[in-house]
Each structure stands twice: as structure tokens, then as C-alpha cells.
């Protein structure tokens, strides 16, 4: 924490008691109690990711401190309390008498290499593409850690989506990062590497969360008059120009931002690829199409006519919608001899892929041979959802609160972040130069994508090992990368060993246990291959590793005893 940050925080604390209040301390206490009661009684299970005693202790701390805090500080503390249960569909919004009205006319995005300005009011358009280094004299990493805790998030990917509170003057002041909610002191690095400082003035506006949450990174929670003056990072377009652009103007835009309509598709003739982008799951088409059904029937008629080499379903900007309409859409993929082919179908996902869009991903994983490219969705396959809205009685803050638990896969198979076959995360330079790492990968495939399991069985273990090491060097730092399906690869390695290709099978198992060291089945089957290979000491070592993970498995214990017992 910098000296300037300390001074700003002291100023907030010293003046809190003298600032005019919209909500009295007694009313705040009543709303805190109402918030706690709603979460504890109406949420299906709020204490899966925070201990109940810890949650209640935080709430009691808020109740005890309302006299010494400003309205905005109480608001952010209550937002953090609601977000502490770590459910992306459960969030408290600064509305009513607690409304956050001061917003800076900038939009931010958290790329893999830092936080950048991705859109801005025309008066600040020169800042687009700049990296944010400091806010109010404090490192942006510290500020981001604080502001992203104001909204619920199911996982780290979803939390990255919450950076738009960097644009809230009320939030930044309440958190102690700026001294005046109407002024945003920034330290930035431009595209040429030059570091500069600027103070951006706030706009007083109604709070419009949905503009950012559901419409993309180029929007902001600002009044529509201000958004009319927003500039986006492509072709120097204003936001209204971008929305109204005709087909010719859109044709020069990067594919992934070419349309933010509910759904659209195109044939990329130069690459023999059919591309479908779904940005919202709605039957009515949001007024942009006749209906979802008419859209996908037309799209699949094109697919059958064109017979493309590959098909891409892009869900990276899809925050959900009506999940009940998805099954007939997925049936189109299942019925299509063109689409339902291994190595030819790709689904692109990202941090904004959420709610019903995650349901669609689950259906694609279960019923098609799709290859998943991108970064983890903002919610896991098992997650809380179907939020209901409540208004806190005195402040008027809006609480979205999950009412259902959606269990799409077996609990043991549901990490917080969905595994990805091919990681493709935007670097800032790729985004601003109009490149797309996910589509670059897809379009760069010379033929059908071949899994590592296929390479093992058809090209041999050495080539499989070489590819695995190459991909591990590139993607191994992502804990959510899935190099291959553990069960399928284990079966392939076992098949080689049982067919007498012992060395090939052993190399396959070496790849397997490197990728899945916690799989007792992998170590068990590796040991069996070692027994076939005439390496009992090695087999015993592997069996002991399997036993350490699953001590009660009778087959493992029997094999260990057999190896320890001398032959007669």
C-alpha cells in the first residue's frame, strides 16, 4: 500500500461519519440482517465454499461498524459479503439509495498480460490499447484483487470478468484507492512502451450493469448518451457505428467481434470452415432474427450444402439465456454427418461463457466429438443458477440469489474450471491487432484434429511422447489444460501392451502418469505393463504409488502381495 493510498484511505475513514447519508445506520443494520437471512434461507446451499461461522462473523462485523462508515463503504462491504459465498449467480448490486452513480467513461479487460483500456469515450480514445499500471498511485494488481471481490464468481475465470468495477468512482473511493469519486488518476503504458499519467473525469449516470455483463467488453455501465460517444478499438468506430455497421463494414472487423447479435453464422470459404457464433441463448432472437430455430435450421442447411472441412461453434461472448431451447439445436449436430465427425467440430469458450451457455457446452461434450478451445467458462459444469431478485428494504440494493443447483456431471468429474483441450487466451497485442488465438489454432489445422490418443495408436508412442512434451511446454502452466482424456488414453496404452507392443505401451503409460499423477488406475495399469515387460521391481514401485492413492483396492493389494511373495 502506497503513502498516497494510506492518505486516501484515512480521508475516507475520517470523513465517513460527517458525510450526508441516504440510509441511516439503523436502516443499514436492518438491510444487513435481511441480506443474511435471504442468503441463509433462500439459497440452495450457501456454505459449500465458505464456512457458515466465517460468513456470519463477517456479517456481524458489518453490523458493528455501520456508524463509522460511509454509505458507499457499507455498500461495498455488503457486496463483498454476498460475493464471499463464491456463487456467480449470487450478487448484490449498488442500486436504489445505494446506487453507484459516478462512472469513468472507460472499459477495461484483463488480458493474460495485464489490464488494458479496450474502449473509451471519444475524448479519451487515445487511451485505447494502453496498459493500466496504477490507479490512484496503487498497483493495478492490488486494485483488481479488491474490485473483483465485489461480485460473485464461480471460479477464477469468472472473476476476471468482474473488472468493470475499475470504472466505478464510488467503489474505488469507498475501497480507498482514490480520494475523489469524480476523478480517476491513472498511470499507463501506451502501445509504444511510453509511460504516462492522466486524470479521467467521471460521468454521473444511472447504474446499467447489464450493458457490461451481457453485451461485451466494449460496453460499460454508463448511460446510453455517454455510450453513443464511445469508441471501440477497431476501425476507429464509435459504439453506435459498430452496432449499426453494414455487412461491408463488418467484413473488415476481426471475426470474433464482427457481430454481437444473438446469433449469426458465415462460411469462411478460404479456410473451408463454417463459423457459428451464439452470443445469447434466446428463442426470439432478441428482435434481430425471426427465431433461434429458423437461424439454426438455415445454418445447418448451409452446412449440408457446403460440406465444410470443419465447423466452429463460438460461445465466448455468451452469458446464457433460456437453456430449455438447447436440445433441438444440439440434435442438429448429432444428425449431421458433416458436423458429427471427430476432428472437424470445435467449440470455443471463454470467461464470459456462462449459465445456459455452459449447459450447451455440456451437451456438446456429451453428445458430439467436439474439441474445446479457449479458456475456462466463467462457471463450472456443476453450478448454482436460476437467480431470483430481491430488493433490500431500506437501501433498495438489488440481490440476485441462486435458487437451483445444476448438476450436469458427476461431482467427482466437476472441477471449478472446466478442462480445455487447447488453451487459447488473448494476449493484449493479439486483441488490438485483430488476431484471435482460438481461431488461429483452428484455421491452422492442415486436416482433422487428431487427439494424442489417436497419435499413440496410429503413429506410435515416440511421436505421441514428442507431441505431448511440446504441448506440455506450451500449455503446462494452465492447470485447466486437458492434454487428453485419461480413460481413453489409458485404454489405448493398455491395448498396445496387451497386443505385445510392450515398449510402446510402456511409453504410453509414461505419458499417462506424467499428465495424471493422481490416477491410481493409471499407476495400476502401468504396473501391469511392467509385469508383462519383465520388470517386477518397477511394477511394485508403481503399485505402491497406486496403493498410496487408493489403499482399499483389492486388485492392487493382491498384485503387491504376488510380487512380494517369492516364486516356489
Which key features would you list for this structure?
Pdz3 Domain; 568 residues; alpha+beta; 2-enoyl-CoA Hydratase, Chain A, domain 1
What report would you give on this structure?
With 568 residues, the chain is α+β, with helices and mostly antiparallel strands. It folds into 4 domains: 96 residues, no CATH class; 130 residues, Pdz3 Domain (Roll); 156 residues, 2-enoyl-CoA Hydratase, Chain A, domain 1; 113 residues, Alpha Horseshoe (Serine Threonine Protein Phosphatase 5, Tetratricopeptide repeat). 42% of the residues lie in helices and 15% in strands. It contains 23 helices and 20 strands. About 1% of the residues have low confidence.
Strand order of the largest sheet: 11-12-13-14-15-20
Q: Provide the CATH topology of the largest domain.
A: 2-enoyl-CoA Hydratase, Chain A, domain 1
Bulk shape: globular
Under CATH, the homologous superfamily of the largest domain reads 2-enoyl-CoA Hydratase, Chain A, domain 1
Distance N to C terminus = 72 Å
Tally of strands: 20
Tell me what the CATH architecture of the largest domain is. Alpha-Beta Complex
**Overall residue-averaged pLDDT value:** 91
Uncertain segments: 11-18
Number of helices: 23
Amino acid at each position: 500500500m502506497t503513502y498516497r493510498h494510506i492518505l486516501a484511505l484515512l480521508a475516507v475513514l475520517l470523513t465517513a461519519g460527517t458525510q450526508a447519508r441516504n440510509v441511516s445506520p439503523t436502516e443499514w443494520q436492518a438491510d444487513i440482517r435481511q441480506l443474511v437471512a435471504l442468503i441463509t434461507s433462500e439459497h440452495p446451499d450457501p456454505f459449500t465454499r465458505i464456512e457458515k461461522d466465517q460468513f456470519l462473523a463477517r456479517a456481524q462485523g458489518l453490523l458493528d461498524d455501520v456508524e463509522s462508515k460511509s454509505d458507499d463503504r457499507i455498500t461495498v462491504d455488503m457486496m463483498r459479503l454476498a460475493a464471499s459465498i463464491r456463487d456467480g449467480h449470487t450478487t448484490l448490486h449498488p442500486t436504489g439509495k445505494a446506487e453507484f452513480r459516478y462512472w469513468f467513461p472507460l472499459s477495461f479487460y484483463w488480458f493474460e498480460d495485464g489490464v488494458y483500456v479496450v474502449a473509451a469515450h471519444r475524448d479519451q480514445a487515445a487511451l485505447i490499447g494502453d496498459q493500466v499500471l496504477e490507479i490512484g498511485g496503487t498497483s493495478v494488481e492490488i486494485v483488481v484483487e479488491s474490485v473483483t471481490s465485489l461480485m460473485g464468481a464461480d471460479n477464477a475465470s469468472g472473476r476476471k470478468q468482474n473488472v468493470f468495477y475499475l470504472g466505478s468512482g464510488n467503489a474505488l473511493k469507498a475501497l480507498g484507492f482514490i480520494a475523489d469519486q469524480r476523478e480517476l488518476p491513472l498511470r499507463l503504458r501506451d502501445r509504444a512502451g511510453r509511460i504516462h499519467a492522466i486524470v479521467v473525469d467521471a460521468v454521473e449516470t444511472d447504474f446499467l450493469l447489464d450493458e457490461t455483463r451481457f453485451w461485451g467488453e466494449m460496453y460499460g455501465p454508463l448511460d446510453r448518451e455517454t455510450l453513443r460517444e464511445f469508441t471501440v478499438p477497431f476501425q476507429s468506430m464509435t459504439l453506435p457505428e459498430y452496432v449499426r455497421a453494414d455487412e461491408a463494414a463488418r467484413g473488415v472487423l476481426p471475426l470474433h467481434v464482427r457481430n454481437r447479435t444473438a446469433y449469426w453464422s458465415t462460411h469462411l470459404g478460404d479456410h473451408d470452415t463454417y463459423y457459428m457464433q451464439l452470443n445469447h441463448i434466446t428463442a426470439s432472437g432478441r428482435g434481430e432474427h425471426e427465431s433461434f430455430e429458423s437461424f439454426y435450421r438455415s445454418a445447418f442447411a448451409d452446412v449440408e450444402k457446403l460440406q465444410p472441412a470443419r465447423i466452429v461453434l463460438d460461445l465466448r461472448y455468451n452469458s446464457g439465456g433460456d437453456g430449455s431451447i438447447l436440445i433441438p439445436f444440439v440434435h442438429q449436430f448429432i444428425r449431421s454427418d458433416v458436423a458429427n465427425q471427430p476432428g472437424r467440430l470445435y467449440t470455443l469458450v471463454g470467461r464470459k461463457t456462462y449459465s445456459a451457455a455452459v449447459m450447451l457446452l455440456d451437451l456438446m461434450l456429451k453428445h458430439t466429438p467436439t474439441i474445446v478451445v479457449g479458456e475456462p467458462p466463467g462457471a463450472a459444469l456443476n453450478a448454482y443458477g436460476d437467480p431470483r431478485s430481491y430488493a433490500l428494504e431500506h437501501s433498495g440494493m438489488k440481490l440476485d440469489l441462486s435458487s437451483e443447483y445444476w448438476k450436469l456431471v458427476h461431482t467427482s468429474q466437476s472441477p471449478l474450471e472446466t478442462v480445455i483441450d487447447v488453451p487459447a487466451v488473448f494476449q493484449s497485442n493479439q486483441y488490438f491487432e485483430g488476431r484471435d488465438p482460438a481461431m488461429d489454432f483452428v484455421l491452422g489445422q492442415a486436416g482433422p484434429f487428431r487427439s494424442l490418443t489417436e497419435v499413440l495408436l496410429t503413429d506410435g508412442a515416440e511421436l505421441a511422447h514428442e507431441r505431448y512434451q511440446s504441448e506440455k511446454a506450451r500449455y503446462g502452466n494452465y492447470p485447466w489444460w486437458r492434454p487428453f482424456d485419461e480413460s481413453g488414453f489409458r485404454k489405448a496404452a493398455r491395448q498396445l501392451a496387451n497386443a505385445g507392443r510392450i515398449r510402446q505401451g510402456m511409453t504410453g503409460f509414461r505419458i499417462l502418469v506424467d499428465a495424471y499423477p493422481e490416477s491410481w488406475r493409471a499407476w495400476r495399469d502401468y504396473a501391469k505393463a511392467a509385469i508383462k515387460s519383465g520388470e517386477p521391481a518397477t511394477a511394485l514401485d508403481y503399485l505402491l504409488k497406486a496403493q498410496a492413492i487408493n489403499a482399499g483396492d483389492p486388485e492392487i493389494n493382491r498384485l503387491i502381495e504376488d510380487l512380494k511373495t517369492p516364486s516356489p
